[in-house]
Amino acid sequence: MKFQTYLKGVPAMVLAGLLASALPVHAKAPIDVVASFSILADMVKTVGADQVNVVSLVPADGNSHEVELTPQDIKKVSSPDTRLLFVNGLGLDSWTDRLLASSGFQGKVIVVSDGVKVRKLDEESSHEAHDHDEHEHEHEHEHEHEHEHGHDHGEFDPHAWQDLANGQVYVRNIAQALSQVDPENAPLYERNAQDYIQQMQALDEQVRKVMADIPEGRRKIVTTHDAFGYFADAYGLEVIAPLGISTSAEPSAKAIAEVIRQVREQQVPAVFLENVKNNKLQDQIAKETGAKVGGMLYSDALSSTGEATSYLGMMRSNIRVITEAIK
Ligand SMILES: [Zn+2]
């Protein structure tokens, strides 16, 4: 009775605020999760909002194919508070296997690319002139020794997020995983995922419209490494990439000469730089072919500054930079 009398005349909003601050028991701490690289971390943050603390193992502008793991990385993953580890899968971040082995991670690993339409690599772009189907297992063993840093030249193209339809699959997987470990906030995650998916759908429609206005013969680009296969398949583009899917090796003189020949022959209008790669080769290709340097693309990592600091911003920036250079 006394309590009610005291509160009489206090506006409802103020009252709600008073109650919230007076009852800290109900303020649930955000859940801790880890993502293998910056693009996933941004997606998880967008879905989880302030109910989720997310740490990215590979930072913005970092190379998501190869990682030198630090004791801090292992500590983050081994913390008993860390509930989920989000990985891309498809061979991009298989270095997380070593991390899991050495950290004693107690949470759940979520492969966000589960359910995407996977792009198979042809032999050319996977750097292997062998028959994948017959010798698959032998290759895996050979590669264990070759690739100390844990990236692999698998059968599949891992860069699935470059197609906005796949981005939507990622977001659904993320929302489902968060809802499972934190059912109390499931409605929030679901709502955020729906909003996010709608924005992806709108951007997807937009890029198709812009691309349709570009003559087919001009829809060709050169990128440093082959990270835009999904983008190209989804939006009707042809990509030439001297570095292949993930390799950190320098391309041979012969491979460079072949790229230059193709760019000349097909009159590729523009060559692009990438935020995660050394771009010296691109300048050389542009110089020798007369193609213009079209600008910076964000392939495997967000930018640490500017528009491409989020997944949607990165996609918007890539779409604009590509279409403006080739239109
Ligand atoms: Zn890549």
Automatic annotation (TrEMBL):
It is found in: Cell envelope. This is Zinc ABC transporter substrate-binding protein. Pfam families: ZnuA. Its main location: other. The lineage of its organism: Bacteria, Pseudomonadati, Pseudomonadota, Betaproteobacteria, Burkholderiales. Belongs to the bacterial solute-binding protein 9 family. Keywords: Metal-binding, Signal, Transport. Residues 1-27 form the signal peptide. It comes from the Bacteria. Residues 121-159 are annotated as: Disordered. InterPro entries: AdhesinB, Bact_metal-bind_prot9, Lipoprotein_PsaA-like, ZnuA-like.
